[in-house]
Amino acid sequence: MANGATITITSLSEENSFHEKFIRDENERPKVAYNKFSDEIPVISLARIEESGEERAEICRKIVAACEGWGIFQVVDHGVDSDVIDDMTRLAREFFAFPAEEKLRFDMSGGKKGGFIVSSHLQGEVVQDWREIVTYFSYPIQARDYSRWPDKPETWRAVTEAYSEQLMKLGCKLLEVLSEAMGLEKDALSKACVDMDQKVVVNFYPKCPQPDLTLGLKRHTDPGTITLLLQDQVGGLQATRDGGETWITVQPVDGAFVVNLGDHGHYLSNGRFKNADHQAVVNSNSGRLSIATFQNPAPQAAVYPLKIREGEDPIMEEPITFSEMYKKKMAKDLELANLKKMANKDNIQLQDILA
């Protein structure tokens, strides 16, 4: 799509404009308000995670319980420098405040790896998400393409490098805990990732004139191992553990990271740990910012349970690579998008096609 034809969500928000392409089917629309917060997702302090003995064991027990219940928890006292967090958040807000033509210099359309995206990034998607994102690939370091990183604000590269490095350390620390919980050596999950990839996605959800009809980000699970999400205090991250029948809005905690377990982590645990089923809703009062850091295995890494407990069967028939797993997931999403397009065209319900 040419830059001149691209309309940013920020522009629509400023014009108080809303298009039909953002309207979700009734069964996909928000069921719970963006600011009706739940305390069901635990907030866990990592202050004593480096110690041995009962302190570390207690932290591990809390994380395991969260992974078995929701696949989501929040961490505080995590060791990520608060100044780096503040700088990253400030620069992200400055970027999204730029005029559309400035952001669109980094337009990611056409298969470019990294940059600025308006709405959904899944080709063939019928209904679009009410969000803008800027994304970059930060690990492995030798694979970084700085031409796809914004050059404004001026300190973007230095700050995002520092942020990515600290988030990589936090991600590895959490993988050690999950490895121990599975009865494995503490580096087992990191080794299973081979050479860990890291992708950072900075989301901006402008205020929306019709938030009850749309989503900022549709319901999904993340494909990777774990995701570390920094969110502001507005609220909008929602989770479900009953297939979308009921939802909760995750309580924002200042300075905390929300940890989502992904599909890869789910498979490595043989289904013991849930892959977090979540979405983002929007509101008509204020914009919302979140920064998601995806800790993913290398494309060639094998996806298969690392340990199968007595009495269990493997949840996968045979090992596949993460690249193959990811392609299958995207193909399934695209197939559902095409089915939805057919249903909308013929004015029938999607569930009638799938029946």
Please give a quick description of this structure.
The chain is an alpha+beta fold and about 350 residues long. The chain has helices spanning about 10-15, 55-70, 80-95, 100-105, 155-180, 190, 265-270, 320-345, 350-355; strands spanning about 35-40, 45, 70-75, 115-120, 130-140, 195-205, 215-220, 225-230, 235-240, 250, 255-260, 275-280, 290-295, 300-305, 320. The strands form three sheets. Strands 2-3-11-8-13-6-5-4 form an eight-stranded mixed beta sheet. A five-stranded mixed beta sheet has the order 1-10-9-12-7, with no helix packed on it.
Q: How many separate helices?
A: 9
Structural class: alpha+beta
Q: Work out the strand percent.
A: 15-25%
Question: How many beta-strand segments?
Answer: 15
By oligomeric state, this entry counts as single chain
Overall pLDDT, averaged?
A: 91
Which stretches are poorly predicted, pLDDT < 50 over at least 5 residues? none
Rg (CA only):
20 Å
Strand order of the largest sheet: 2-3-11-8-13-6-5-4
The largest β sheet comes out as: 8 strands, mixed
SSE order:
HEEHEHHEEHHEEEEEEHEEEEHH
**Level of helix content?**
25-40%
- How far the N terminus sits from the C terminus, by CA atoms, comes to 36 Å
